[in-house]
Amino acid sequence: MKEQYDRQRKSNLQIDSFSRIFSIFCLKTYVLEKIEFNKIELIQHVKDAIRYENIDISFNDLIFDLEEAVCLLQREGLSYFFVHRSFQEYFTALFLAHCPEDVRDTFIDEVCTRHWDNVLSMLYDMASSQLEPSWVARNSDNYIEKYGLTSAKIHPLFGRFRSIILNKNSNGFRVFHLSAGPAWNFISAMRRFYPEIMQDFGTLDFDELEKFAISAGKRVGDDSFIREIDIGINSLEGNTFEILISDIPMDILEKTKITKFTENEFKSIKAIRSGIGKDQEMKSNFLNSLFKES
Fold first, then answer.
1. CA nearest 121: which of 231, 195, 23?
2. Domain membership flag for residue 154
3. Residue 227: which H helix or E strand, with range?
4. pLDDT of residue 10
5. Helix, strand, coil shares, percent, the chain, to 5
6. Same domain membership, residue 152 and residue 88
7. Which residue numbers in the chain have pLDDT < 50?
8. Total domain count for the chain?
9. What sign does the CA torsion over 282, 287, 292, 294 have?
10. Are residues 62 and 150 in the same domain?
11. pLDDT at position 217, please?
12. Mind listing the pLDDT tens digit for each residue in 244-278?
């Protein structure tokens, strides 16, 4: 970006100030899931970013620089776009890497299920030393304490998933998807931070589960644990049903390999947390030794 920034600019901002303002612009538009703007929207977003940084510059000059001098935005007809979406993601992560911890933590919790972009992975690359002893350690401790492998009723499976959603048509029951459990967002973020450790742990096999659903489906009613639901997808053929994970016998769940899948996730998170603890202890011991030597 430095070579681009050396071009003639109207705002006369130093590169650090320019980056901070553009980071706010990117953060706001990212949260709003906006990558295209009309002129009125663009002006408002730019004004908000300038106001946040409390810098006295013309919004028109900054828009000129973004479009003509630095070429981060482009105009087509009446609309403005990011030249590349990765600019929005990078500068959003850059803001988060330097913002207060509570703001960053809230952001992670809110957007961790956006699997289609790289903001969280970029954030981890920029600020892992800040994230690990705070957000990662705190949430890992809560997860390990709540879903430790102590019994069948306290199993990471029940944190990861809430229920099985099935579609029933002329061919019978088919698993449509697994609905999110209370630890879903946390694990989604961990998969973004540690893709090599939080790898895929094999393919799930839903044949036995679908057979179980056929049996349970014969008793659909007030006294049954399978219930018909509306998930709002009009294009889906047939009816949709839900079975809570807690209502499915453990031997059926084990045959789907879903219990092993979530156990492996749990063990990976536990290993990550252990590594963070050892790293923090080593750094603490090193710093303490400096004072003793002096």
1. 195
2. yes
3. strand 226-229
4. 82
5. 60, 15, 25
6. no
7. 5, 220, 222-223
8. 2
9. positive
10. no
11. 61
12. 998 888 888 888 888 888 999 999 999 999 999 99
pTM: 0.82
Residues 9 and 80 in one domain: yes
138 shares a domain with 190 = yes
> Does any domain span residue 176?
yes
DSSP-derived secondary structure for 110-174: HHTT-TTS-HHHHHHHHHHHHHIIIIIHHHHHHHHHHH-TTBTTB-HHHHHEEEEEEEEETTEEE
Are 9 and 65 within one domain? yes
Q: How far apart are CA 129 and CA 203, in angstroms?
A: 33
Question: What is the structure's pLDDT at 187?
Answer: 93
pLDDT digits (tens, 9 = 90+) for 176-189: 888 999 999 999 99
The two three-digit tokens of residue 21, written as one number: 């303002």
- Closest C-alpha among 42, 35, 84, 82 to residue 59: 42
Range of the domain at 12: 2-98
Q: Is 74 helix (H, G, I), strand (E, B) or coil?
A: strand
120, part of any domain: no
Amino acid at residue number 263: E
> How many angstroms separate the CA atoms of 27 and 38, rounded?
18
Give the three-class secondary structure for 293: helix
Query: What CATH number does residue 12 fall under?
Result: 1.10.10
Q: Characterize the bridge pairing of strands 36-38 and 226-229.
A: unpaired
* pLDDT given at position 188: 92
219 secondary structure, DSSP code: T
